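As the work plan foresaw, our protein records have gained a structure token line. A representative record is set out beneath this paragraph:
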Amino acid sequence: PVDSVLAFLTPDELQGKIDPKRAAELARFLNADWAVLGDIDDLGMHRFRATVPLGGYRSYEGAVSANLILVNAIDGRPTGEVSAEGLEDSRRSGITNPASFVPLDKQYIFLHEIEWDSDEFRDSLVGQAMSIWASKAAAGVGEDIRPPPSLQVLEPKIIDIDGSVAYINIGLVEGIRSGDKYGVWDHGRQLQDPDTGAVLGQVPPRRVGVVQVEQIIADHLTQARIIEGLQTVKNGYVLRAE
């Protein structure tokens, strides 16, 4: 699916010139909740000092530094920024054997020829720095993109439907946010014996659709979009956090 987006990008966009509104449009095309934009400040390998024949030190460093911007797919609104850096160095001190640096010399000279995400790349200083950066970036993104809160109201439900727009009885008080998704469940139904009419039992509720928060209107009122189950979601059906 990600590759399919490339066909819609202009030459400038393929070079990374994408604004938040456009990023949100592409995220919706992929049925994603968020888009991530960013700038790479550093991605490479640095050499700090030449070999000293009988001692001293020589240092290579893999460095990755980038700033990410999180964009809500609903309205294209930037909702947070994450900056992270990953560094991995090979600094040695004391008397060293110049031959021990040959593999690092090759990395430094031929880094552009190493296949991205190959085992060779992952083992390189840049690959190790990338792993450090990715862990830090993921932790930062996780702080801004959280699952929707559990619903504390007695019966969170749909109270009105207008086409593909649903109004729900949760809002500011529950701490929900634009872009949050909730499953929609029916009430189940009773089954009766076709011959006697006796009630045999209650079928458990079924998940019949999904709504996504678009606009929080008041303490206990929110406008949402029905993104799954347009024909099966009905007034009074119950919401559950997913």
Observations:
- Residues 125-144 form the longest helix (20 residues).
- The radius of gyration is 27 Å.
- The domain at 158-241 is CATH 2.40.10.410 (Thrombin, subunit H).
